[in-house]
Design brief:
Elements lengths: L7 H9 L3 E5 L5 H4 L13 E6 L13 E4 L2 H14 L6 H14 L14 H11 L5 E4 L6 H4 L10 E2 L9 H12 L5 E6 H5 L4 H8 L4 E6 L4 H10 L15 H7 L3 E5 L5 H10 L4 E6 L39
Parallel strand pairs: 1-2, 2-3, 4-5, 4-6, 6-7, 7-9, 8-9
Helix pairs in contact: 5-12
């Protein structure tokens, strides 16, 4: 992923090396471009080819060298056939090896796994080991999204449901219900925060009525942390209305609506809890008590609009920490 929650290696490859960016079904939205900030990840040296099924998306946010209007799968098949007829890509193996080397240099350092309240980055890392490779996640808007959008491995298409830009809090917990109806044999997990889940928690009743065994994992830090931290940055550490004086017991709330509700306070409890959530055959809310000041992962983008954040531009030549010189 690139943009607000972009991976550092992906940003560096695009910012420092990409001559042409081929965008397939990609809108260059506020989220995907860090509010269209230079180098987060796109730079003026990039040229764009954009493929989309909607004509109004072509060149809407960035000028393009070529705009392709059509179905992505059908168009890509025709392009591959045309490339094969032209002799393929002679440098493809070298490029792939170079990218693999750059990715291998990046290491995500995890904070203390034993502390309580828990570190969100540790929880996300542990969940990847516990959930099936083909499980499907819906990521709600909030700080918790930082821990899944760039650094949570996804092993196949249509397994990460993301609302995109403009931060629609509460989208993830509701979207997971429709997704479960579409593929009832998969494990479906909604990743949400206490703020977003409070906006839509009545959908627990919907899941109970429809007998949909989805799992909501609530990162409960008693705060609207993304907004709180934005307030701190913009107003010299002052906040208003973004820390809750009363923490919600989401496990008790779930049980009152006929679902399974479980509270987790330590990381060593998570394995048994997820086993139960995946096998109980009922809607399940897992209330994770996480540190309200948990360590942020090293995302490469910026979330705050340019008008209320320092100059975050990174022109080409800013940094080559993982990629070095392309062997071309």
């Amino acid at each position: 992923m690139v943009g607000w929650l972009g991976h550092p290696v992906a940003h560096e490859i695009i910012r420092e090396h990409a001559d042409v960016v081929f965008a397939v079904g990609y809108r260059f939205s506020d989220e995907a471009t860090s509010w269209w900030t230079e180098g987060r990840p796109y730079v003026k040296e990039n040229r764009f080819i954009q493929l989309d099924v909607q004509q109004q998306e072509l060149a809407k946010n960035y000028p393009v060298e070529a705009g392709l209007l059509g179905d992505a799968a059908a168009t890509l098949r025709e392009l591959v056939e045309a490339l094969d007829e032209m002799g393929g890509r002679p440098n493809a193996e070298r490029s792939s090896a170079w990218i693999a080397t750059a990715k291998s240099k990046f290491r995500l350092d995890l904070p203390d796994a034993e502390k309580s309240p828990m570190e969100s980055m540790v929880v996300a890392d542990r969940l990847r080991a516990l959930l099936p490779r083909d499980s499907i996640l819906s990521i709600d808007t909030g700080t918790h999204a930082h821990y899944f959008s760039a650094f949570y491995p996804i092993y196949g298409p249509r397994r990460l449901l993301n609302p995109g830009g403009w931060t629609p809090m509460g989208w993830g917990p509701a979207a997971i219900l429709g997704a479960k109806l579409a593929a009832p044999d998969k494990v479906f997990v909604s990743i949400t925060g206490d703020g977003g889940f409070l906006m839509i928690c009545q959908e627990i009743v919907t899941a109970v009525e429809w007998r949909l065994p989805v799992i909501w994992i609530v990162f409960n830090d008693s705060a609207l942390r993304a907004i709180r931290d934005g307030q701190k940055e913009a107003y010299d550490g002052r906040i208003i209305g973004t820390e809750f004086t009363q923490s919600t017991d989401f496990a008790a709330l779930a049980r009152s609506m006929g679902a399974v509700g479980i509270t987790v306070t330590r990381i060593d409890e998570l394995s048994g809890v997820m086993d139960r959530a995946m096998t109980c055959g009922m809607p399940c809310v897992v209330d994770l008590r996480v540190d309200p000041d948990a360590v942020y992962p090293p995302v490469a983008g910026v979330w705050y609009e340019p008008s209320r954040s320092p100059d975050a531009r990174m022109p080409r030549g800013s940094s080559r920490q993982w990629t070095g010189i392309y062997p071309g």
